[in-house]
Amino acid sequence: MKSVSFLIFIVTLLIPATAMAKNQKQGQYFINFGAASNYYNYNSKDARDELDQNLQDLLDDYDLNGDDSDIVNASVGLGYYVTNDLAVRANYTYGIELDWLDLCFFDCKNNVYHDSDASILTLDGIYHFYHINDKLSFYGIAGLAVTRVSTKLTYHRSQQREPIARENSTNLGANLGLGLQYDFARNWGLKAGYSHHTFLSMDKYYLNLEWRF
């Protein structure tokens, strides 16, 4: 009988703790991060259209109407839980290689090389609209995406690269997505999801960690 009473006492103590765990995110800051876990798929023609007109003219003979992708990049984000279900976040991803123009894509006989990459800063609202249980929930994302495309032409001579031309362009678009979050510890979570950047028609599939503090 004493053992049963003791168990009831323990359960009574655990119930409030469970409720606290469910609502502990409100008022907390968090960091999202991932490396080689963000898969980007984009439209090659949209990316080419961001180049200088002179560079576009050089590419007119190539068919760039399909899609390409990149996974070798890294991202980090800082956010804040306004409520247990609503958060705001700034997230930065860098090192997105536009591989269709990498290395000696054109004018190889003259040793002219081209390299192009992109970085994205998003300002998002994240809302957890459905909870499967205290640890697992679905969320939606809506916000703005600032994309910077950097391009560079170089001439190769004696195993050295000499810069010929550089160009940077910055563009504003929207960011929309859906995801699933699993909180496997009090201050740790795992986010898996999909988002779409209207600029470059870029789709993102990701698996990132979240640390709350």
From TrEMBL:
Alphabetized UniProt keyword annotations: Signal
Signal peptide per UniProt: 1-21
Coiled coil: none
InterPro entries xref list: Beta-barrel_OMP, OMP/PagP_B-barrel
Keyword match Endoplasmic reticulum: no
Record carries keyword Signal: yes
UniProt domain Outer membrane protein beta-barrel: residue ranges: 8-213
Protein name: Outer membrane beta-barrel protein
Species this protein is from: Pseudoalteromonas spongiae
Lineage: Bacteria, Pseudomonadati, Pseudomonadota, Gammaproteobacteria, Alteromonadales
